[in-house]
Amino acid sequence: MNLQFNDSSITVAVVGCGGFIGSHLLDAILSRTKWRVFGVDLDFYRIQHRLNDERCEFMVADLADKSVVERIAKFPVVVNLAAICTPSRYMAEAPEVIRSNYDHPVALADACEKSGSWLIHFSTSEIYGRTSVDSGLLVEDETELTFGPVKSSRWSYATAKLLTERYIAGLKNLKWTVVRPFNFVGPYMDFMPGVDGSGIPRVLANFSSALVRGEPLKLVNGGVAKRSFTSVFDAVDFLFALFEAGQMGFVAADAITEKSPFSQAFNVGNPDNEITIADLAWKMRKIFAEIKGVNIESIPEPESISGVEYYGEGYEDSMRRLPSVEKAERLLGFKAKTPIDVVLRESLTWFVKHYGCLDERLETKDER
Ligand code: UGA
């Protein structure tokens, strides 16, 4: 059976609808299907152009509110993207990070189990923990998970996310799928520190901010760690492959087989886009010079800084995150396809247009 993209009776609940991934998912649902969306978030600036869409209902709320959780769980498919995922906060605000990444999502999971909804829960590639530079492919159902000691508060987030995965997997009557994103990037990712957010965002937003400000890119511990960057547009295609394979959850219990995408965790990443953070910095510097049409020599060179000096006490790193994507290919027929140069150019061009000429906003940075 093919999924009915033109079935206007389907409503998808998207928690974190105004966030980076949520905003792209919302655009894709509204342009590719006739479905309706029930969107929940605390901040809607990325989706202002959708606020009056008659196929959408939005709610300013978070999962700390029990009545909101119950309302969300009434929809047959619930995508939960809400999370605190700003690395500098893992050390500074560990209890809040844990509440946001454990207490809130498990309350939603309980409610979905009761109502029979399909919960698509966004976890993180960080649950693979403290990987080394020569860790190999990270495989969903095989790789050992190792975290740093409790005093290394960097792991507050990963620990909460992992416990949530275990809780979800332990709920006997919940129809669930867990998604582990590997460094999604694209337009609207994170924020520019001092302009529309505070703290240290993830590396792409941070490097983009430094380039726009004419400051050197900071390489944490020399930038030897590696990541596999994934286009957010590929990530949205993954979700559509998942919706299709799971028939929006409208699958009778006796029709669920080992090929169904339920009770599964999926890595969503692009192993072809693996790069060291130092190489990423040099590449972004070059692309930025091309976008701006300036001599590359006029752009400051990257500088190394220690992790503790940059993020504070308790920082540790995952040295390599290389996803196995075999399961998504086998069960969903999905493979990310956007090459790193395309992803970076697209993200940086958006960033420069969005923030680059807003000089008056940059000047307000000290007030925030
Ligand atoms: C972060 C989150 O903690 C994960 O949960 C999330 O899944 C992941 O982003 C993601 O986007 O998928 P991480 O990969 O460590 O994890 O994110 P970044 O903060 O973007 O750092 C990547 C690497 O760049 C790290 O080695 C970091 O130390 C380095 N970095 C970061 C720099 O060298 N300079 C910077 O300015 C920022």
Please identify the top-level CATH class: Alpha Beta
User: How would a textbook summarize the main sheet?
Assistant: 7 strands, parallel
Bound molecules: uridine-5'-diphosphate-glucuronic acid
What is the percentage of strand-forming residues? 5-15%
The CATH superfamily bears the name: NAD(P)-binding Rossmann-like Domain
Shape: globular
What's the architecture, going by CATH? 3-Layer(aba) Sandwich
Enumerate how many helices there are, as a single number: 12
CATH topology tier name: Rossmann fold
How many structural units, i.e. domains? 1
**What is the helix content?**
25-40%
Work out the radius of gyration.
20 Å
Mean pLDDT: 93
Overall structural class, as computed from helix and strand content, comes to alpha/beta
Number of strands: 13
Question: What is the element layout, followed by pairings?
Answer:
Blueprint: E1 11-15, H1 20-32, E2 36-41, E3 56-60, H2 66-72, E4 77-80, H3 87-92, H4 94-115, E5 118-122, H5 156-170, E6 175-181, E7 184-185, H6 203-213, E8 218-220, E9 226-228, E10 230-231, H7 232-245, E11 264-268, E12 274-276, H8 277-292, E13 303-305, H9 307-311, H10 326-332, H11 340-356, H12 359-363
Bound molecules: uridine-5'-diphosphate-glucuronic acid (UGA).
Task: Describe the 3D structure.
The chain is of the alpha/beta class and 368 residues long. It has one domain (11-367): NAD(P)-binding Rossmann-like Domain (Rossmann fold), CATH 3.40.50.720. The protein has helices spanning 20-32, 66-72, 87-92, 94-115, 156-170, 203-213, 232-245, 277-292, 307-311, 326-332, 340-356, 359-363, and strands at residues 11-15, 36-41, 56-60, 77-80, 118-122, 175-181, 184-185, 218-220, 226-228, 230-231, 264-268, 274-276, 303-305. The strands form 4 sheets. The chain has a 7-stranded parallel beta sheet with strand order 3-2-1-4-5-6-11, sandwiched between helices. Strands 7-10 form a two-stranded parallel sheet. Strand 5, helix 5 and strand 6 form a beta-alpha-beta unit. Helix 1 (20-32) crosses helix 7. It is globular, with a radius of gyration of 20 Å. It starts with 10 loop residues before the first strand and ends in a 5-residue tail after the last helix. Uridine-5'-diphosphate-glucuronic acid is lined by residues 85, 87, 124-126, 157, 181-184, 202-203, 206, 218-220, 223, 225, 227, 277, 317-318.
